[in-house]
Design a protein that fits this description.
This protein has 7 helices and 21 strands. By secondary structure, the protein is of the alpha+beta class. The structure holds flavin-adenine dinucleotide. The site of flavin-adenine dinucleotide has 35 residues, from strand 4, strand 10 and strand 14.
Amino acid sequence: MRAEVDSSTSGRQFKILQNVPLAPFTTLGVGGPAQWFATAWTEDQVGEAAQFASSRGLRLFVLGGGSNLLVSDAGFSGLVLRIAMDGMVFHAASKFAKVLVDVAAGENWDAFVQSAVERDLAGIECLAGIPGTVGGTPVQNVGAYGQEVSQAIRRVRCFDLTTGSFVEMENAACAFAYRTSLFNTSEHGRYIVTNVQFELQEHGSPNLTYADLQRRFVKSLPSLTETADAVRTIRRGKGMVVDPAEQDSRSAGSFFKNPIVERSILKQVAEAAGLDTFAVPHWPMGASCIKLPAAWLLERAGFERGYSLGNAGISSKHTLALINRGGATESNIAQLRDRIIAGVRDRFGVQLEQEPVNVR
Ligand SMILES: Cc1cc2nc3c(=O)[nH]c(=O)nc-3n(C[C@H](O)[C@H](O)[C@H](O)COP(=O)(O)OP(=O)(O)OC[C@H]3O[C@@H](n4cnc5c(N)ncnc54)[C@H](O)[C@@H]3O)c2cc1C
């Protein structure tokens, strides 16, 4: 490793390094090196890194907390830019008790959730325990336990790699939908999120739409802090909170999205499972589509918790989490992924889609 550019800003050195292993920057812990690697502590450094990449004709990949990535064994040829800007500004409540909060993209997501619930601000309490950075959350519109981050986002500030300038995008411009936004679809790779503005409800009630949560609070309405703690406890029981001592949490979260299919597919799935259509779990999605639980499809196709293929496996606590059982490579994980996708397709005729982002 050697420093190519070395400038000091706010006491934090901005260095562009070569040949930096990426696996330690990911929760799955697989993958090869970045050809070039830098950490941005300020917005100016984001611009500096973009300039470095464009002047050399390099591809640029934005790294947050590495909790939704599958990095290739060959690594990434180009510049990996790790986003580390920090800072949270809680503004005064409006007369409707709405509170705006500006959060830098490199802040830890769960730390922000905790700061919000401790101030009795509702809107993100069910998203407690999700790993990664604040800047990573709008990208795939993270969601859990009945909430999606897009419901609380007001505005996203980004560096536009096409124009080389900063832009502020209102919620409606971000094209949020189930696990998608313009950042991971139509404008994939164009924007670097540097700051997110949230709108939270002061003294709001917790969202208790999920049965798992309701069951814990049958006697009284919990506070927002209690709700967030309960979500973390439920998640921990499923290996869905990153814990270095817990092999089942060495994952990229849910590896497959819940597939959205035409309603007519339900009959085909029911027949393949030997069930009546009403016995197949599903959620309506608009007039003509349904969402099927990917975990149910995996289990019925023979891919149960604890299933293993060499050093890769399925978590013993969560059917959708593919884990690094120790010493796994990207190709081990990919082999298991492909076996599962083929198995579900052969059994039900349903195509699963990978949720983590491929870095290659
Ligand atoms: C144990 C575990 C549990 C999880 N549970 C959930 C869950 O309940 N719900 C859920 O939705 N997800 C979940 N995830 C997935 C993951 O935590 C989220 O997607 C998270 O928001 C990713 O953020 P990150 O900072 O780690 O992004 P990374 O993994 O570093 O990057 C993911 C993608 O976002 C892009 N990106 C990251 N930061 C920026 C930025 N500042 N600007 C532009 N692009 C950026 C990257 O380029 C990449 O394409 C889980 C993951 C793990 C490991």
